[in-house]
Design a protein that fits this description.
Elements lengths: L6 E4 L9 H16 L3 E6 L9 H14 L5 E4 L4 H13 L3 E4 L3 H13 L15 H9 L5 E4 L5 E6 L3 E6 L7 E3 L8 H10 L4 E5 L3 H13 L6 E5 L2 E3 L14 H6 L4 H10 L12 H7 L10 E3 L1 H13 L3 H10 L6 H7 L9 H9 L11 H9 L9 H13 L3 H13 L7 H17 L5
This protein binds glutamic acid.
Length: 449
Amino acid sequence: MTSSTPIVRFAPSPTGKLHVGNVRTALMNVLFARGQDGKFVLRIDDTDLERSTKAFEDGLKTDLKWLGLDWDDTFNQSARFSQYEAAAGKLREAGLLYACFETPEELDKQRKLRRAQGQAPIYNRAALGLSDDDRAALESQGRKPHWRFKLSGESASWTDLVRGDQSIDTGSISDPILIRDDGSFLYTLPSVVDDIDAKITHVIRGEDHVTNSGAQIEIFEALGGPVPQFAHTPLLVGADGKSLSKRLGSLSMDQLRDQGLEPTALLSLLGKIGTSDPVEAKPSLDILIDEFSFDKIGRAPARFDEAELALVNARYLHDLPYKSAKPRLAEMGADHGEAFWTLVRANIEKFRDVAGWAKTLYAPMQGQIDDEDVEFCKEAADCLPEKITDETWGIWTSELKSKTGRKGRGLFMPLRKALTGRQNGPAMDEILLLLGHKASAARLRGEKG
Ligand code: GLU
């Protein structure tokens, strides 16, 4: 790594499960960093000690590893309160962090009043007018201050790697509260302190943070840290274009994992929706890394469609080489060799579906024979050659065709159902080859074979 290589971070709060929305943000960070030989830092935003849990933290780490989004370094914000205190002290000294005493009810009243007067409902900065004596008097009444950062009121500008030139008029937003009246830190200041200390070069996150970035740029400057570059990606919406927020619970990684979805398929989809590239099943993260560019990310929300995910998942499996499938097949007790995998992979939607095909082809089973096909299947068993080769299916079915006068579906479907117990599946010539004479003949006679 050289000094110009990027250092990025993904900063989830361990207050819930990792879902497709935050995985997409993590992925964008990984794709960018890995493509530039950079470093990917996992920052655990657990300043909210009440809502953050170790179980959620462990869960999100398990999920990121399952996805193959490994980090180079990780730390918890809860271990860094003294650094945040020091930064707050620096801001106070510079006159940029001021004590406020309004209660939530008072603030609410103020906002309503401003709206009624046609003004933007932002904080009126009344606390800036308090004298030392006023403050002392309020504190002696038992009031505890919360602390706001004094924005410049000018515009904070940056060239966003996704959105292009951006400018936030900090006069149009409230001075952000950095410290609550119980002394706890909100997200805004710790994030900047950490980005400076971890030498973060690029902040890649959802566009719901664009306004925050305006305020945070001023905090970066006030603390003397370099301002990183920003990339704000459009949010995810459902296939119907509506917000996913209510459905995110069912789109958490543990749920998707339980449904048998492949991590690489999920990354293929999340890495491409909302970009100018087509959505395709990529065989590995490396390809997504090679193809990544901020320029490809559009401004419109990215549509996350579960039906598309299912398709990408199936396509990923259809191309999965035997050598990648082998250990998983072995674990399931379904490693029947390369020919078996190559035959069935195009007929499964989830990897676990392979177990059903292993049973169909390798465990004694009775096929499905409709009453009107019993005689036909017996006849088929009688003329099935002992030695089955690549050519047997073609020769055997033409013989049956001329003997019985059956053709098309009427000829083939009873054979498929008798031999596999299913109405669709892989090519029958290969199934016949794998089943062999004994099992095939038994099944055609309605016996277990
Ligand atoms: N914990 C913040 C969030 O999840 C991090 C935002 C950021 O990347 O700065 O929204």
